[in-house]
Amino acid sequence: MGPHPAVAAIRLAVRRVLNDILDDHGRAPGRPAHELPPSPLVLVACSGGADSMALASALAFEAPRLGVRAGGVTVDHGLQADSDLRAAEVASRLRELGLQPVESVAVTVGRDGGPEAAARDARYAALDAAADRHGAAAVLLGHTRDDQAETVLLGLARGSGIRSLSGMAAVSGADGRYRRPFLRLDRQTARKACMVQSLPVWDDPHNADPAYTRSRLRHEGLPALEKALGKGVVEALARTAQLSRDDADALDAWAGRAEAGVRDADGRLECAALHDLPPAVRRRVLRRAAIEAGAPAGSLFARHIEEVDRLITGWRGQGAINLPGRVVARRQGGRLVIRQG
Fold first, then answer.
1. Radius of gyration (Cα) for the chain, nearest Å?
2. How far apart are CA 219 and CA 223, in angstroms?
3. What pLDDT, in 10s, does the model give residues 109-150?
4. CB-side exposure of 240: number of CA atoms within 13 Å?
5. Mean pLDDT, to the nearest integer, of 167-171?
6. Whole-prediction pTM value?
7. What order of strands is seen across the sheet that includes strand 269-270?
8. What 3-state DSSP class applies to 70?
């Protein structure tokens, strides 16, 4: 008799991702042992919640069978009483699963971008540092289809473009460091897998705190949408994310090819050539140019690019546009100049 369907589902999802990692590192099946590179190390980021505990258990089960070394990292954000004790307990559970190396990393959460964004930035910085420290090939994250649906709705509420609506990528980060095996699985599957394996889980009180936007969306917004529109909203939003990502990738590639054709011999952007591009492509070229000039990507919003775009499409002699990172965009003699200062 095989494992419970929920356990089988999470293990299959992790097995597929581990095989992808092995392929990326030249350890595909069939190569002679003496030609194989060292076994890659894969870390799981684990908060102790149901999603990440289910992920850790599946990694611990699948990794040895595929010749992959498996470890874990838990991040102590220091935002709740006794958070250090909780992190130590999670680390202990990861070791009991057979993961090695395992560590708990304490971080200081700043204030930039609000509490949720600041905590996320601190967490990813800690995970990056841990991956570098241990030489990990990848870090697994426990985001589910429900998380993806929430991310799409948050992007929609901000009035963001199609890239924001594409949600979280299955593979992201430098050199594809971050992998999300559970984006096609719902949150309930992960929780069920923990229950049938008697895995203790920790429910973060912040996930139920209405002070946080994502928490309100999870407990009020999505249920209201399902009540009004019927079941299947989460699945539909997840499909929207994938379709949007495909479109955004195609437009980004188009913009990358178009950029060379709108620059003069000195590398400046030609306004007439920019004007002839489709708006979605032109705005991507402008965004790329602003980031290249030093504007932080995370602070560069659609309204900034729209103002720069008006220097091309609605030129009335207006002055320079100030962008984040002390970057300035101005029109000079039929050319668009974007630079710091």
1. 23
2. 7
3. 887 767 777 888 899 999 999 999 999 999 999 999 999 999
4. 21
5. 94
6. 0.84
7. 269-270, 335-340, 327-332, 321-323
8. strand
